Automatic annotation (TrEMBL):
Keyword Signal on entry: yes
Family: Belongs to the bacterial solute-binding protein 3 family.
Keywords in alphabetical order: Signal
Residue span(s) of domain Solute-binding protein family 3/N-terminal: 54-269
Species: Shewanella septentrionalis
Name the UniProt record assigns to this protein: Transporter substrate-binding domain-containing protein
Amino acid sequence: MRVGNRVRLRMQQALNLPSALILGVVLLLASMVYNMALAQESNAVPSESQPQAITLAAEDSWPPFANQFGQGISHRLIQAAFKQSHIEVNSLVVPYSRALMMAEKGAVDGVFNVTREISTEQRFIFGKTPLLVATASFYQKKQKPILADNKWALPKGAVIGVIKSYEYGDEFPKLVKQQQLNIVTVANQQQLINLLLIGRIDAALMFDLVAKENLKKMGVDDDVIPVFANHSSDIFLAFSKKNPQAQTLATQLDAGLSQLKATGQYEKLLLVAD
């Protein structure tokens, strides 16, 4: 009787052995599939500390730095700098005032070509390294008598044309108040130059390389000339305060620009025309 029991027990064990093996294999496969799924999900979703792509608002009428086609010096510099950190840059080309608003509200991660001054530091996050430095001057019709020798000598009540939402340095609000200037605001460079040509304004305040580009394009570069300087601006990519990664992005941009300068690429990108 005991012998029979032992035989039956061994038979049961022999029958149960394949089931145990099958179960083990199934559990092992399930574990491998689960781990592969986790790895794929991790690769598909960018880490919060390391963004893989960003969206920036780029102004549409500031050539040679940024134009309506999404091209220009600033585009090249920003894309090349972020490429060092393997970050893809997507640009939305819009008017400058809208670009500022979009970045301020957090609709985009940042905005092109912002002068770092008191007013903008209150609205955006900046890195330490500017994209570039741009000078701005007062422009007049060549045939018209020069208004003054410098901006502080502008006659009181002079009519000055500017672009909506542009920054013209920390001194400009003081200049407007002190000289009681009448400011006429327009949307783009072409409108500003046309107002100057037809005598609706006494002078136009324009960034020099931008003025040169637009005056040549309009065929009036012999009719409008710079008469005296306004200021020199450090031009930045400004980041939205609504973005928790803003400071990280600013640091990565600084590092990218430094690397471009160290390798000599920066000067080439600054000078090459589209």
